[in-house]
């Protein structure tokens, strides 16, 4: 898988300006926008706490939430993988002794690791500057959960991609899924604001592992037991989706027409 | 690298069929709405009851009109698609199972598709391919340079693939396809869209490569020079079936039954005349062309001599391309 991670790194380093925007400018802008939004909300509502948390606590959450949400997002690779099936460029993968799942997982993780290294500087710097509730000793645990989530979200993408063998265009699945993930991951707002029943439901879904759980753990909203539970939930969902993906992949290849060749 | 099963027969197909299911839609937006709820599915048999055996080290030229089933056959043999029914075995493997042992011994080059990585240099692509195929880094690098020298493209190895011309890219694709020394090679239109110089370079390279490494090759091309110069065996396909299976020379003998005779008179003919061989010669005409069986040529020329002084006679043998075209236009079976 290392060779595919290397391929992703080589590819991204070819386009310097695009990578600079992706790694530096884009996180800066999205963090600034989110922080301004929450700051304005507190000002407009004239309150000092929301859902039992202070403004500083929310800003600290937002700083890290933007980072985790960016790293856990995979729409770019999902689009590329769908294109492979739609256009038939997957042919060049199918005729070589490599596995499509592994090939793209390696690239996806390679790209995410590179992005993580650069993008981490911003929230870490802000947390040091602003103080707040960040506990840097908890960062490895939060990153570990994020890595598990990356494998999960990639596996979910793989399942969607396998549907393209039969349905050809499935871009709308991606859009719908992304909207759901946006809400269920805690990127839009902390899941503390959900009703107790919805919050309970979200604890059995893997999406909170993208943002809410690692950020909550990092900023002392959640404890190690919550992190551990999220790890198991995410691993279990990954396993289930992996089986679905394998089933649909085999069925997909049976009907694939080798498009475009 | 090992070959499973008997080496002598590399490809074995029996009653092979592939049916593609698609749907048709009448023109217009109303029919698009109608088709949203109810589709009219149709089946197209791309291959029908196809039997084929290919021995090791043979170069097979596949010829046929668009939609004849050539590319479908290559896709089936390379494992890209599953057969609808029938048996297909390549190197003793069922290609559609895509076992790594099989994929390591074959290669397919699709002339209309990029198979190398668009955003990196060919050298980086070849290094990645070497890892994928489990090749030794040093010897694969030597092989890259050896092939690049044969194709005269060493200077382009370090340039990003997307910045190369079509001909240069095709040379890189060929290196990528041959890097792991495949035992069987499927070439689908390897010279398509290339200028004459690039076509000749690639054709010459393939001739040389085949002499040195003796791989089994299945080649499709719309350029008949590719087929006639490289192939030991010719397969003519029509409507998903093999209509001719033999050598190029045998095919020419079977199908060339006529010669083109072009006669030029010194002066135009003064009177119209119906000729014995069937044509009508118009007054004022000074050139006559006819496609005749060889045994009728002298009779035809005698008749023309009686009409005026002949300044020039040209008898042309029908070339391979024309014979193939004739075959494809007519519904004939030569097998």
Describe the protein.
The complex is a heterodimer of chains A (261) and B (335). Chain A is mostly helical. Chain A has one domain. Chain A is 76% helix and 2% strand. Chain A is built from twelve helices and two strands, in the order H-H-E-E-H-H-H-H-H-H-H-H-H-H. In chain A, helix 3 runs antiparallel to helix 7 (121-130) and helix 4 (75-87) runs parallel beside helix 8. Chain B has two domains: 9-26 and 42-253, P-loop containing nucleotide triphosphate hydrolases (Rossmann fold); 258-317, no CATH class. Chain B has helices spanning 29-37, 70-78, 100-103, 122-132, 137-150, 166-178, 196-213, 224-230, 248-255, 297-305, 320-329; strands at 9-24, 40-55, 59-64, 85-90, 106-110, 184-188, 216-220, 233-238, 241-246, 259-265, 273-274, 280-281, 287-292, 310-316. In chain B, helix 7 (196-213) links the parallel strand 6 (184-188) and strand 7 (216-220). Chain B is built from eleven helices and 14 strands. The longest helix of chain B has 18 residues, at 196-213. Chain B is α/β, with parallel strands linked by helices. In chain B, strands 5-6-7-3-8-9 form a six-stranded mixed sheet, sandwiched between helices. A three-stranded antiparallel sheet of chain B has the order 2-1-4. Classes of the chains: A mainly alpha (261), B alpha/beta (335). At the A-B interface, helix 1, helix 5 and helix 12 of A face helix 2, strand 5 and helix 4 of B.
Short structural summary:
The complex is a heterodimer of chains A (261) and B (335). Chain A is mainly alpha-helical and 261 residues long.
Descriptive tags:
heterodimer; A: 261 residues; mainly alpha; two-stranded antiparallel ribbon; 76% helix; B: 335 residues; alpha/beta; Rossmann fold; 11 helices; 14 strands
Draw up the topology in text:
The complex is a heterodimer of chains A (261) and B (335).
Chain A: H1 2-14, H2 16-45, E1 49-50, E2 53-54, H3 55-72, H4 75-87, H5 91-94, H6 100-119, H7 121-130, H8 139-167, H9 171-184, H10 196-203, H11 212-218, H12 224-255
Antiparallel strand pairs in A: 1-2
Helix pairs in contact in A: 1-6, 2-3, 2-6, 3-7, 3-11, 4-8, 6-8, 8-11, 8-12
Chain B: E1 9-24, H1 29-37, E2 40-55, E3 59-64, H2 70-78, E4 85-90, H3 100-103, E5 106-110, H4 122-132, H5 137-150, H6 166-178, E6 184-188, H7 196-213, E7 216-220, H8 224-230, E8 233-238, E9 241-246, H9 248-255, E10 259-265, E11 273-274, E12 280-281, E13 287-292, H10 297-305, E14 310-316, H11 320-329
Parallel strand pairs in B: 3-7, 3-8, 5-6, 6-7
Antiparallel strand pairs in B: 1-2, 1-4, 8-9, 10-13, 10-14, 11-12
């Amino acid at each position: 898988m290392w060779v595919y991670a290397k391929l992703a790194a080589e590819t991204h380093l070819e386009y310097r300006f695009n990578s600079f925007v992706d790694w530096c400018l884009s996180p800066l802008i999205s963090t600034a926008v989110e922080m301004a939004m929450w700051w304005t909300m507190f000002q407009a509502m004239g309150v000092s706490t929301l859902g039992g948390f202070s403004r500083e606590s929310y800003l600290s959450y937002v700083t890290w939430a933007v980072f985790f949400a960016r790293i856990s997002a995979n729409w770019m690779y999902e689009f590329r993988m769908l294109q492979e099936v739609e256009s038939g460029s997957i042919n060049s993968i199918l005729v070589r002794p490599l596995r499509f799942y592994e090939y793209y997982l390696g690239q996806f993780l390679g790209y995410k690791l590179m992005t993580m290294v650069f993008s981490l500087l911003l929230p870490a710097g802000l947390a040091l500057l602003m103080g707040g509730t960040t506990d840097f000793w908890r960062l490895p645990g939060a990153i570990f959960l994020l890595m598990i989530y990356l494998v999960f979200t990639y596996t979910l993408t793989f399942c969607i991609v396998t549907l393209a063998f039969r349905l050809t265009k499935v871009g709308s699945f991606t859009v719908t899924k992304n909207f759901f993930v946006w809400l269920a991951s805690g990127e839009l707002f902390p899941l503390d604001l959900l009703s107790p029943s919805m919050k309970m439901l979200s604890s059995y879904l893997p999406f909170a592992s993208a943002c809410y759980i690692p950020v909550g753990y990092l900023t002392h909203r959640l404890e190690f037991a919550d992190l551990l539970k999220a790890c198991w939930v995410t691993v279990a969902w990954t396993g289930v989706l992996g089986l679905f993906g394998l089933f649909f992949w085999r069925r997909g290849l049976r009907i694939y027409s080798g498009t475009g060749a | 690298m090992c070959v499973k099963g008997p080496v002598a027969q590399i490809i074995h197909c029996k009653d092979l069929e592939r049916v593609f299911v698609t749907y048709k839609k009448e023109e217009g937006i109303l029919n698009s709405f109608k088709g949203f709820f109810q589709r009219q599915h149709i089946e197209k048999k791309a291959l029908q009851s196809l039997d084929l055996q290919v021995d090791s080290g043979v170069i097979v030229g596949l010829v046929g009109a668009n939609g004849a089933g050539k590319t479908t056959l290559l896709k089936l043999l390379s494992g890209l698609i599953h057969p609808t029914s029938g048996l297909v075995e390549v190197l003793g493997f069922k290609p559609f199972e895509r076992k790594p042992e099989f994929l390591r011994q074959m290669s397919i080059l699709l002339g209309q598709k990029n198979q190398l990585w668009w955003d990196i240099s060919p050298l980086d692509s070849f290094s990645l391919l070497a890892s994928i195929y489990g090749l030794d880094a040093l010897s694969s690098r030597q092989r890259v340079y050896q092939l690049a020298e044969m194709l005269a493209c060493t200077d382009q190895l370090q340039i990003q693939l997307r910045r190369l011309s079509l001909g240069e890219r095709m040379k890189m694709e060929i290196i990528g396809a041959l890097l792991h020394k495949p035992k069987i090679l499927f070439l689908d239109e390897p010279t398509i869209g290339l200028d004459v110089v690039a076509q000749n370079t690639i054709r010459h390279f393939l001739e040389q490569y085949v002499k040195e490494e003796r791989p089994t090759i299945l080649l499709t091309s719309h350029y008949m020079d590719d087929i006639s110069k490289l192939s030991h065996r010719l397969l003519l396909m029509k409507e998903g079936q093999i209509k001719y299976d033999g050598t190029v020379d045998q095919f020419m003998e079977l199908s060339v039954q006529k010669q083109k005779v072009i006669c030029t008179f010194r002066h135009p003919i003064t009177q119209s005349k119906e000729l014995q061989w069937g044509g009508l010669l118009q007054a004022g005409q000074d050139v006559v062309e006819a496609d005749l069986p060889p045994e009728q040529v002298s009779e035809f020329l005698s008749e023309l001599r009686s009409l005026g002084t002949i300044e020039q006679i040209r008898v042309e043998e029908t070339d391979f391309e024309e014979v193939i075209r004739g075959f494809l236009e007519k519904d004939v079976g030569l097998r």
